[in-house]
Every structure is written in structure tokens, then in C-alpha cells.
Amino acid sequence: MKPTWTSEEIESERQERLEELKDESQGEAPGSFSCHELLDRTSLLMDSVDRFVLGHPSCVRNKDWFSLAHQAFDSLFRLYQDIGEKHLGAETSHKPLEQLATDD
């Protein structure tokens, strides 16, 4: 089964959403509160998929459903790791070198 949306359709949707956000800029860059919030929401979704979908008996008993649910979890995990790498890297890059050496 192929994805429902083409990469062009996905980019078109992203551009539409960007247009909606044009006047709402709140500092979404890595290192910002907004980026931290996205990291947290992604973590919550990973937990929900794990507990409520992957852990559901009907999902566990169906090989295809379990595989699809695991793909969703894996995608969220990759997203979480990518956001975290950029977000946490941006947070530490703003600190003076002396402070980085003393942070625990």
C-alpha cells in the first residue's frame, strides 16, 4: 500500500499552513519555548501510541495493524530525536563556554 498523499500534496498543505501562521510568529526556532512545546507534544503522542495502540490487545493480535502502529511510533520517535537534537543544540549554543562547562 502506497502513502495516501504525494510529497507535492504534503508540501502544498505545509505551505497553506505556513500562510495561516504568517501573522502569528512567536519564535518557533529551535531553542524557543514553542519548540520545547513541540518536543513535549511529540513525546506525549509517542507515549499514547505505545500505550493505547501498540498495547491494545486487538492491535497486538493483528500482525498488519501492529506493524502499521509501530511505523507510526517509529516516525514519531525519529521526529522527537530530530527536534530534540536541534532544540537542545540551540539551547546550549547560546550559553557562554564557561557556563557550559559548569552546567550539570
Q: Helices and strands in order, then pairings?
A:
Elements: H1 7-21, H2 33-54, H3 57-61, H4 63-93, H5 97-102
Rg from alpha-carbon coordinates: 18 Å
Q: What is the residue-mean pLDDT, rounded to a whole number?
A: 85
Global geometry: globular
Q: pLDDT under 50 segments (min length 5)?
A: none
Approximately how much helix is present in the residues?
over 70%
Give the helix/strand class.
Answer: mainly alpha
Total DSSP helices: 5
Brief summary of the model shown:
This protein has about 100 residues and is mainly α. It has helices at about 5-20, 35-55, 55-60, 65-95, 95-100.
Please characterize this protein's 3D structure.
The chain is an all-alpha fold and 104 residues long. The chain has a domain at 30-92. 76% of the residues lie in helices and 0% in strands. The chain is built from five helices and no strands. The chain has helices spanning 7-21, 33-54, 57-61, 63-93, 97-102. Helix 2 packs antiparallel against helix 4. The radius of gyration is 18 Å and the shape is globular.
What key phrases describe this protein's structure?
mainly alpha; 104 residues; 76% helix; 5 helices; single chain
